[in-house]
UniProtKB/TrEMBL annotation, chains A, B:
<dbReference type="Pfam" id="PF00106">
    <property type="entry name" value="adh_short"/>
</dbReference>
<comment type="similarity">
    <text>Belongs to the short-chain dehydrogenases/reductases (SDR) family.</text>
</comment>
<protein>
    <submittedName>
        <fullName>17-beta hydroxysteroid dehydrogenase type 1 isoform 2</fullName>
    </submittedName>
</protein>
<dbReference type="InterPro" id="IPR036291">
    <property type="entry name" value="NAD(P)-bd_dom_sf"/>
</dbReference>
<dbReference type="InterPro" id="IPR002347">
    <property type="entry name" value="SDR_fam"/>
</dbReference>
<keyword id="KW-0560">Oxidoreductase</keyword>
<dbReference type="GO" id="GO:0004303">
    <property type="term" value="F:estradiol 17-beta-dehydrogenase [NAD(P)+] activity"/>
</dbReference>
<dbReference type="GO" id="GO:0006703">
    <property type="term" value="P:estrogen biosynthetic process"/>
</dbReference>
<dbReference type="GO" id="GO:0005829">
    <property type="term" value="C:cytosol"/>
</dbReference>
């Protein structure tokens, strides 16, 4: 039997950073980062003991480049990238594959569950008008992106199945099939595998062939 | 008077992920991520009001690529990258510059203050021998890197001063002068500025000339 761990939980947080409380920020990290890590921790010893397994984690383009008014959300999604890259370097020595399924906007309840500072919120009264104007613009941009570019969950499931069925899964999968241009600016080796192998060679080189 | 915020606090955490408690993981994020964000939050309204300012944050190569046995540390440093990139996209509209000073190993008390699972720790008795062997190898690698490649704090201070004195600071500075090869695999535009400008254009384009 093949062991498969899928980590998919995630919540959003949108609004000017000045208005975010420490408790709210902690909650986002609790779900998005620690939820993911604790899920992996629960299955890791058994996977290592069996010398096989797959760990699939839902990533986000917000984990690959910053998004204004999403400082804490991006922090949590970047954090997942860091944890997964670190794990992937180690776990290839156990025949355990880590894969990030990097999603853009998807038609789920994400927008419903998203914690967002709404334009009518009284907290916005503390804010300078320039920030408020940019925030309005950002929300419009965001609505239009979700209306025009959001993928259906079935399309995302297909990518998960690709990763699950592949004999040698990549580290990073982009759900739309193309690497978004901003991510391309940051990542020359989009599947991430070369980076992980190089790191392993540097550190554990006496083990490599 | 020019407003300058410097965020430098950070702690490390090293050891097999299976052995990390939730409380320990939370502490690392509390210092490395929330400490940084709260410092920025404290000065942001005044910087915005003055329409100028500089935010300098100590980053780490561990925020740019994963390191085995450093899942939580890398998560926290990646998180800082995400928060700072997000902020930088917005704050260029306020004439506030965000810069990350990306350090490799530095001769500070970092190693003394580092939370590390030591080889004699009883907690390691729960661990499989393969992981233990790789962890020993990692610790040796780490010692040799710090002995052979660690920079002095004076060299780092010079980079901070460069960023402070530059009329148009970059987003990302590498303290050794060269982008580490693994980071190069990930970042084609090493100073990060193009990525930030592109993001801003996409979202706030009606403001751009």
């Amino acid at each position: 039997m093949s062991l498969l761990t899928v980590c998919n939980a995630g919540v959003g947080l949108m609004g000017p950073l000045e208005l975010q409380s420490l408790d709210t920020m902690r909650q986002i990290l609790e779900v998005n980062l620690f939820g993911t890590i604790q899920t992996i921790q629960a299955f890791l010893p058994e996977m290592k003991a069996q010398g096989q397994g797959r760990i699939l984690v839902t990533g986000s383009t917000g984990g690959l480049h910053g998004l204004p008014f999403n400082e804490v959300y991006c922090a949590s999604k970047f954090a997942i990238e860091g944890a997964c890259e670190s794990l992937a370097v180690l776990l290839q020595h156990f025949n355990i594959h880590v894969s990030l399924i990097e999603c853009g906007p998807v038609n789920t309840d994400f927008l419903v569950n998203l914690q967002k500072v709404e334009l009518g919120d009284t907290s916005l009264e503390q804010l300078d008008t320039h920030t408020l104007g940019l925030y309005e613009k950002y929300l419009q941009h965001c609505d239009s992106v979700f209306q025009n570019a959001a993928q259906d969950t079935e399309d995302i499931v297909k990518v998960f199945l690709d990763a699950i069925q592949s004999p040698s899964p990549l580290f990073r999968y982009f759900t739309s099939g193309v690497v978004p241009p901003l991510t391309q600016l940051k990542i020359t080796q989009p599947d991430g595998s070369q980076c992980i192998r190089s790191m392993s060679k540097i550190i554990f080189s006496s083990e490599e062939k």
